[in-house]
Amino acid sequence: MSTHTSDSSSTPNQVKVALGIDIGGTGIKGAPVDIATGELLSKRHRIPTPENSTPDAVGAIIAEMVNYFDLPSDAPVGVAFPAPIRHGVIKFIANLDKSWKGVNLEEVVSQAVGRSVSVLNDADAAGYGEALYGAAKEEEGTILVLTLGTGIGSALIVNDTLVPNTEFGHLEMNGGDAEKEASAVSRERNELDWDVWANGPLQQYFSMVDMLLSPDLIVVGGGVSKAHEKWMPLLNVECPIIPAELRNNAGIAGAAAWAAEHIG
Ligand code: BGC
After folding, report:
1. Which SS3 state, helix, strand or coil, does residue 245 take?
2. Of 10, 65, 78, 203, which residue is 20 to 30 A from 261 by alpha carbon distance?
3. Looking at residue 27, what is its pLDDT?
4. Domain carrying residue 40
5. Do 224 and 255 sit in the same domain of this protein?
6. Which CATH number fits the domain that encloses residue 205?
7. In terms of domain of life, where is this protein from (predicted)?
């Protein structure tokens, strides 16, 4: 996938910098991003997610994040959020305050920051970031990006186009949500050694997504991708599986690029 500003025919009006904000269960992280390269232009700033993670509380933190950076006046804001989002509205929410269901996130963010904003699912942002700037940037075909963290996030990119809100972490596995058994947090909660997790619930999950989607490449992100040597070689699927490259910055870079693409 190529970035729209790396092309020599770019017009001078195209957005060069956007602020990416990634909202997670424990931290809200942000940084200004160079849209041509995906590089963070300052050290990322992290604010802990409030225990009571309501729309008002999170909106206030997003405003604080925007004010923290000295941004160009035309820099848009892209927000990655851990839920499916249809036309700005949260459809359901697994790992933040339940009051988010039905809320228009795009409105909450634009009211909080008074700039152009664009919102998307957190795994979609990470996948978009990896496809534009990271592990999958040279790849064509069907790319599945999975983020293993508190839940399991998914991004499906088919010939450079993101198919949003795939929510493959909620596929049914053993009668429940797959993410409840196969996420990184469930490995810790169930005190599973890496090999037991990889050969058990993770293999079952990967076999299922491989069977359903026949991807050309699977990229795995989330905190556990740092320790990929401990479990990735144990997985057996038909396509290559590689670790994410941008690690914790994928969501920030992807959200910023999405905002630049959709607003600029
Ligand atoms: C949510 C997804 C999110 C994933 C990772 C899931 O529980 O439903 O929208 O992408 O967690 O945060």
Report:
1. coil
2. 65
3. 95
4. 12-125+250-262
5. no
6. 3.30.420.40
7. Bacteria
Residues 174 and 231 in one domain: yes
C-alpha–C-alpha distance, residues 193 and 206, integer Å: 18
Query: 137 CA to middle of ligand 1, Å?
Result: 23
**Same-domain check for residues 70 and 155:** no
Residues of the chain predicted below pLDDT 70:
2-13, 264
Residues 6+ apart with CB under 8 A from 48: 26, 27, 28
In a shared domain, residues 172 and 216: yes
pLDDT of residue 263: 81
pTM beyond cutoff 0.90: yes
Total structural domains within the chain: 2
For residue 141, give the amino acid letter. G
pLDDT for res 13? 57
Q: Do 237 and 256 share a domain, yes or no?
A: no
CB 184 within 8 A of CB 224: yes
- Residue located nearest, by CA, to atom 10 of ligand 1: 153
- Mutate-to-test residue for ligand 1 from 96, 120, 152, 224, highest number of ligand atoms within 8 A of CB: 152
If you average pLDDT over every residue of the chain, what do you get? 94
- Indicate if 183 and 256 belong to the same structural domain: no
Residue 169 CA, ligand 1 centroid: distance in Å: 7
Q: Which two tokens stand for residue 104?
A: 């228009």
